[in-house]
Write a structure and sequence with these properties.
Elements lengths: L1 H5 L46 H5 L38 H11 L12 E10 L18 E10 L14 E9 L2 E8 L12 H8 L15 H8 L5 H8 L13 E2 L4 E4 L5 E10 L8 H10 L3 H11 L5 E9 L1 H6 L19 E10 L4 H6 L12 E3 L3 H17 L79 H8 L3 H16 L4 H11 L4 H11 L40 E5 L6 H13 L3 E6 L3 E4 L5 E4 L1 E2 L10 E4 L3 H9 L3 H10 L3 E5 L3 H6 L12 E4 L4 H13 L5 H4 L1
Parallel strand pairs: 11-12, 11-16, 12-15, 16-17, 17-18
Antiparallel strand pairs: 1-2, 1-9, 2-3, 3-4, 5-7, 6-7, 6-10, 7-8, 8-9, 13-14
The structure holds CIS-heme D hydroxychlorin gamma-spirolactone.
CIS-heme D hydroxychlorin gamma-spirolactone binds next to β2, β3, β4 and α11.
Length: about 725
């Protein structure tokens, strides 16, 4: 079973009664309420069992102890040799075993997603803090402590399926809730706004950012002419550009990103009353990012960096967790804002509408098969359930069409909802029939409604069915935009002004790098003229980085917009969410060589592992190294196969012969310098100080709390300080000078 495979007794089930929310009562059972004996579930949900496991289990294939067969179940005796007319004779057309094998192989690939092709996913559950029936009748929020299984896929947007994880890009954050009222997909991003206001522009945006069509370059990068040509002509994209050029565009981990539903949605309660709502996921691990030099280097050494991080965290039992918060607001409030809540290029500052925490999501199980689950999962914004409704956001409208449409090509027909990962836990009953790859075997002769021959079944659910909120909005048909959509800069300015100095510097660097890759000067200049409208400071610094003069501001679409409610919002800085997990899952590199002092490494190792960090001994090669005590230390990675920038922090060991050997190794200095350059914590023990000196790194605890020195004898005493320093993620004071 999966349990045994991964060595975790609790890998399958949500931990019963555990909650990060103080004062939250213990949950004693899954409250998933699907009917006993449905085709999909085979039975009622069991206590503590993720209700999506049993249905998927039906389809799992385990070859252990089994003989090899064809797809028809015919035993295969020889899987090595083609059937031939004589040993040196021609192969025979009759060889159905060869032909079946090759034919299947020839068709193994399906089209990749037109956007978000590169991604990784995991199973888990959502747990409601409280009943939310005042606002919504949506199943996951119906009871305090209710758990609903989820499958979550994270992705980059522009790159192809095999592209690097650490590209500068928005990240997809798509959550499929398998509720007892059907599937609900919240298909969001790690950024709360979008590039465009209207779905009509989506194909243009994607064509502009994807590799240029004549030569297919660049891969997984927006730093090229067509992207900047398009966005510089679309000032509505400026706010989103600020986010993507910021550190949000290069997250440290999928586990350390916020998620946003982006659009305004509607919640509807049992009385048919509705409020507006925006969805926010906040990671318990905190929001953390890479720095650009690090992201570029990682993309070479480990293109699977985020996939590996998510997989390893879950395998090790460090289940990533997010809190779901809602911004709930009324139409009257919406009307009073200086921006339009139907405009996806705008967010609602948390100062205006604070978040109401409503539950938590825990990802506690890796998929069994990447293709069957992660590749074949089909998210769709049209997948809503009673209690969740759409707003009139014109971007959302296009999405409601696009997702199910794209799956028909990608997954080969209209029955993709029957693929196990997509099938709801709730029973499916309707008169839709046939089509490519139909799995269900419908009984009886009735596939129409009304009918008398099947007793009128399946019958309409009436008031229990999904009701579209009767949004009264009769107006003349028109192709156009509401007035406030024409204001394009106020929130881009708000974002810039809400960042720390280091974050602002990174935004400048992001624009400078991207625009430096744009070959046509007029595009650079047009973009700069747009940035003038965001911030004079930003425009000047980017212009200086490109060796250009600041041009005239781009004329604005709206001359006298309503004044913004606020000019700074703390929540927009990544530093607003430092996280509650300390050094848990942080990757610590400890350099080793022959003759390292064993005792200090052993005590640091034990303190770090106790705190939940992952410690790697790294040598010039992998394998055993003898320590001063005669005990062996095993390097599980080498500086060649795991360069320094892959780690969160570094320990330089004590022991003269070891340090000398490390000095003599040509890769050591780069390993150390990258840690310093990327503002990470470095601890040097005893003789290890020499390595710091050789790298030109000064230890000054006042100026830089991320460089620690200690003698071997003090390893125990320094451990808590080191742990605190690593938990700080980065020591940006180093960068600031
Ligand atoms: Fe989209 C995939 C998120 C606008 C059309 N989108 C896709 C995925 C995510 C998002 C996370 C990957 C789902 C997965 O993991 O399988 N998309 C967004 C967000 C948007 C957005 C947050 C703006 C708020 N998307 C958007 C528009 C359209 C699409 C305006 C079209 C009108 N998106 C698609 C798509 C994709 C997709 C073509 C490609 C593969 C897929 O759907 O399943 O239909």
């Amino acid at each position: 079973t999966k349990n045994l495979e991964h060595g975790h007794d609790n890998a399958l089930a949500p931990p019963i009664g555990e909650s990060s929310k103080p004062g939250f009562d213990k949950v004693t059972a899954s409250t998933i309420t699907e009917q006993p004996g449905t085709a999909k579930t085979g039975g009622p949900a069991q206590i503590g069992i993720n209700a999506n496991i049993a249905p998927l289990d039906q389809f799992k294939v385990d070859p252990s102890g089994q003989r090899l067969t064809t797809n028809q179940g015919v035993p295969v005796g020889d899987n090595q040799n083609t059937l031939k007319a004589g040993l040196r004779g021609p192969s025979l057309l009759e060889d159905f075993i060869l032909r079946e094998k090759i034919t299947h192989f020839d068709h193994e690939r399906i089209p990749e997603r037109v956007v978000h092709a590169r991604g990784s996913a995991a199973h888990g559950y959502f747990e409601a803090y409280d009943a939310l029936d005042k606002y919504t009748c949506a199943a996951p929020f119906s009871e305090k402590g209710k758990t609903t299984p989820v499958f979550v896929r994270f992705s980059t947007v522009a790159g192809e399926r095999g592209s690097k994880d650490t590209a500068r890009d928005a990240r997809g954050f798509a959550v499929k809730f398998y509720t007892d009222e059907g599937n609900w997909d919240l298909v969001g991003n790690n950024i709360p706004v979008f590039f465009i206001q209207d779905a009509m522009k989506f194909p243009d945006l994607v064509h502009a950012v994807k590799p240029e069509p004549h030569h297919g370059m660049p891969q997984a990068a927006s730093a090229h002419d067509t992207f900047w040509d398009f966005v510089s002509l679309m000032p509505e994209s400026t706010h989103m550009l600020m986010w993507v050029m910021s550190d949000r565009g290069i997250p440290r981990s999928y586990r350390m990103m916020q998620g946003f539903g982006v659009h305004t949605f509607r919640l509807v309660n049992n009385l048919g009353q509705s409020v507006f709502c925006k969805f926010h996921w906040k990671p318990l691990q905190g929001t953390h990012s890479l720095v650009w030099d690090e992201a570029v280097k990682i993309s070479g050494a480990d293109p699977d960096y985020h996939r590996r991080d998510l997989w390893e965290a879950i395998e090790s039992g460090e289940f990533p967790e997010w809190e779901l918060g809602l911004q709930i607001f009324t139409e009257d409030q919406a009307d009073s804002f200086s921006f339009d809540v139907l405009d996806s290029t705008k967010l609602i500052p948390e100062e205006l509408i604070p978040l109401t925490p409503v539950g938590r999501m825990v990802l506690n199980r890796n998929p069994d098969n990447f293709f069957a689950e992660t590749e074949q999962v089909a998210f769709c914004t049209a997948h809503v359930i009673p209690g969740i409704n759409f707003s009139n956001d014109p971007l959302l409208a296009g999405r409601i069409h696009s997702y199910s449409d794209t799956q028909i090509t990608r997954l080969g027909g209209p029955n993709f909802h029957e693929i196990p990962i997509n099938a709801p836990v709730a029973a499916v009953q309707n008169n839709q029939r046939d089509g490519l790859h139909r799995q269900a075997v419908h009984r009886g002769r009735v596939a129409y409604e009304p009918n008398s021959l099947a007793g009128g079944c399946p019958f309409q659910a009436g008031t229990e069915g999904f009701v579209s909120f009767p949004d009264s909005n009769a107006q003349d048909k028109v192709r156009g935009k509401p007035e406030k959509f024409a204001e394009h800069y106020a929130q881009a300015t708000l974002f810039y002004n809400s960042q720390t100095a280091v974050e602002q510097a990174h935004i400048v660097d992001g624009f400078r790098f991207e625009l430096s890759k744009v070959a046509v000067p007029a595009i650079r200049e047009r973009m700069l003229s747009s940035l003038v409208n965001v911030s004079g400071d930003l425009a000047e610094r980017v212009a200086a980085g490109l060796g250009m003069q600041v041009p005239e501001a781009m004329p604005k679409a709206m001359d006298n917009p309503q004044a913004p409610e606020i000019t700074e919002s703390r929540a927009l800085s990544l530093t607003a969410l430092p996280g509650l997990c300390g050094v848990r899952t942080r990757q610590i590199a400890v350099l080793v060589e022959e003759g390292v002092i064993h005792a200090s490494l052993a005590s640091l190792h034990s303190a770090l592992v106790h705190a939940g960090a992952v410690v790697h001994f790294i040598g010039p090669r992998v394998g055993n190294f003898a320590t001063d005590s005669g005990a062996m230390v095993e390097a599980d990675k080498s500086m060649e196969n795991a360069p320094g920038f892959l780690f969160d922090a570094l320990i330089l060991p004590d022991g003269n012969p070891a340090v000398q050997a490390l000095v003599d190794n040509p890769e050591t200095m780069e390993f150390v310098k990258d840690h310093f350059l990327h503002c990470k914590t470095i601890l040097a023990l005893g003789d290890g100080h020499r390595l710091l000196e050789m790298a030109g790194i000064e230890a000054d605890a006042e100026k830089d709390p991320g460089i620690l020195l200690a003698q071997s004898a003090d390893a125990n005493a320094i451990a808590p300080r080191f742990i605190d320093a690593v938990a700080a993620h980065r020591h940006s004071s180093r960068e600031a000078g």
